[in-house]
Design goal:
By secondary structure, the chain is mainly β. The chain is built from 1 helix and 37 strands. It starts with 5 loop residues before the first strand and ends with a strand. It binds (Z)-L-Arabinonhydroximo-1,4-lactone (6LW).
Length: 502
């Protein structure tokens, strides 16, 4: 049994649950590395390591310095989209798009994937989002982007060479041909793309040719992967990357969602990273169905270190899973000011504001509990589950009151209010599957309240979770559970996240 507050990483699919979409993977010897999108959150681009493609340990975040990542003008679900991670010539290369005003494509490199990563080199002439880097035998680097556009590039300067040309953009009338990855496998160059849009119509298609610059012939069995029109528990499957194991077997990492509730189904954790096997027939990939069961692996599992679920804020700085909305200046978020506590100093006046001081972790389990001990004597703030500025539930404390606030679209309301006991208090929220119901049943219920000094939970509100889903809020993210300050200074002694699934 793992010690309390640590998550025994039992192998499951998704291999990276919660808001971890657009996975890009590479192998170096016996080690695998994987990066994901991070949108309006800072630091950006979480980076993971694994020895078995199943157990992933976060090494850090690629864009973890303000000089590398500016998100101030990024709207919710804007910011960092769709990295490609590759290892070439003894270095790790990562290319990614910052979708904000004045943003664009950027390239960073590192010799150690745990960092530090370089300052970004901008690639302003790369003609689109979802950039990929691939090197051919003579060292030419090809950058391919959404829509099937490609241009040669010098990745060390970001300068493009020559004029972009269009390769292959999926099937006729394909919606959103994106997420290209180009590989040399055997005698062919393969262009893997996503198409159909990242919603229920999502899929993966492939084409091949003899040169990285095309022409490409589409696979007769496209899409090689889609769950559209099925009742499989994993939906929206797409945006994939391929990797080969040391034994020669092939694997695909991809994004998928787990919708819950009645119809049309709501996914609340965001787009998650799944793993599925790939075999080859006539030099075309055949992709296994993406299931909640782990595929059989031809190697033994290598669990990483157990994950710490409780943070006592005793170490300098925050662990890599903590993400903040748009930035994290030390004047607003620090563990240094009162040792052993996280201090948050308000800037925006509520979670509705784009500059709110909020720092949290991805919700990774359908059923979970989060608790924090807060000292609200110098301000107002608390514990929230956030989808974006317009969709969040919070239990908030001042020196005198505890209240639950719900914001859904343009409606914001104080759902419940109680006098607060004096001194620090424990705020708590749980998410749980809904009671049995008909087609209108939501995906889960979110209960918010506080704990009495004897540890009993006082529920102040119990809210339908569908309003904190991507199907309601729109966009590309998922829920983040965390701590915020909306006025003055809030101090948090600890934060505890506990999975309740199974
Ligand atoms: C990303 C695109 C996608 O740029 O969603 O599912 C977008 N695929 O490739 C944002 O994550």
């Amino acid at each position: 049994m793992p010690p309390p507050h640590q998550l025994d990483k039992r192998p499951t699919n998704p291999v990276l649950p919660g808001l971890h979409p657009d996975p890009s993977v590479c192998r170096v010897g016996d080690d695998y590395y994987l990066a994901c999108s991070s949108f309006e959150y800072f630091p950006g681009v979480p980076l993971f390591h694994s020895r078995d493609l199943v157990h992933w340990t976060q090494l850090g975040n690629v864009l973890d310095r303000p000089e590398q990542l500016r998100l101030s003008s990024a709207w919710s679900s804007g910011g960092i989209y769709a990295p490609t991670l590759r290892h070439h010539d003894g270095r790790f290369w990562l290319i990614v798009t910052n979708c904000r005003e004045g943003g664009g494509n950027l390239i960073v490199t590192a010799t150690d994937p745990a960092g530090p990563w370089s300052d970004p080199v901008l690639a302003p002439d790369v003609p689109g989002i979802d950039p990929d880097l691939a090197w051919d035998e003579d060292g030419t680097c090809w950058c391919t982007v959404a829509g099937g556009w490609q241009v040669r590039i010098d990745p060390s300067t970001g300068r493009t060479l020559g004029t972009p040309h269009q390769l292959w953009a999926g099937g006729p009338d394909a919606k959103a041909p994106e997420a290209p990855h180009l590989y040399r496998i055997g005698g062919y160059w393969y262009l893997l793309i996503a198409e159909g849009g990242t919603e229920r119509g999502h899929g993966v298609s492939i084409a091949r040719g003899l040169s990285p610059a095309g022409p490409f012939e589409p696979c007769p069995d496209n899409p090689v992967l889609t769950h559209r029109g099925t009742d499989r528990p994993v939906q929206n499957t797409g945006h994939a990357d391929l990797v080969q194991g040391p034994d020669g077997s092939w694997w695909m990492v991809l994004l998928g969602v787990r919708p819950g509730g009645g119809t049309p189904g709501w996914h609340v954790l965001g787009r998650e990273t799944f793993l599925t096997p790939v075999t080859w027939v006539d030099d075309w990939p055949v992709v296994g169905r993406v299931s909640l069961e782990l595929p059989e692996l031809p190697w033994p599992l290598v669990p990483g270190p157990a994950e710490e679920l409780r943070d006592d804020f005793d170490s300098a700085g925050l662990r890599p899973y903590w993400i903040s909305v748009r930035d994290r200046p030390v004047e607003h978020c620090t563990t240094e000011e009162r040792p052993g506590w996280l201090t948050l100093r308000a800037r925006g006046t509520s979670l509705d504001e784009p500059d709110v001081v909020f720092t949290g972790r991805r919700q990774q389990h359908v059923a979970c509990r989060a608790r924090t001990l807060v000292d609200p004597s110098e301000g107002r703030g608390g514990l929230a589950v956030r989808l974006d500025e317009q969709h969040h539930y919070a239990v908030e404390a001042t020196g005198t009151e505890v209240r639950v606030i719900a914001r859904v679209g343009s409606l914001s309301t104080v759902v419940a209010e109680r006098p607060a006991p004096a001194g620090p208090l424990v705020l708590a929220l749980t998410t749980a599957p809904p009671p049995e119901g008909g087609p209108c049943t939501g995906p889960d219920v979110v209960s918010l309240g506080f704990e009495q000094s004897d540890g009993t939970f006082t529920e102040l509100a119990n809210l339908d979770g569908r309003y904190l889903s991507t199907e309601v809020a729109g966009g590309f993210t998922g829920r983040v559970i965390g701590l915020y300050a909306s006025d003055g200074t809030l101090r948090f002694d600890w934060f505890d996240y506990e999975p309740l699934d199974g």
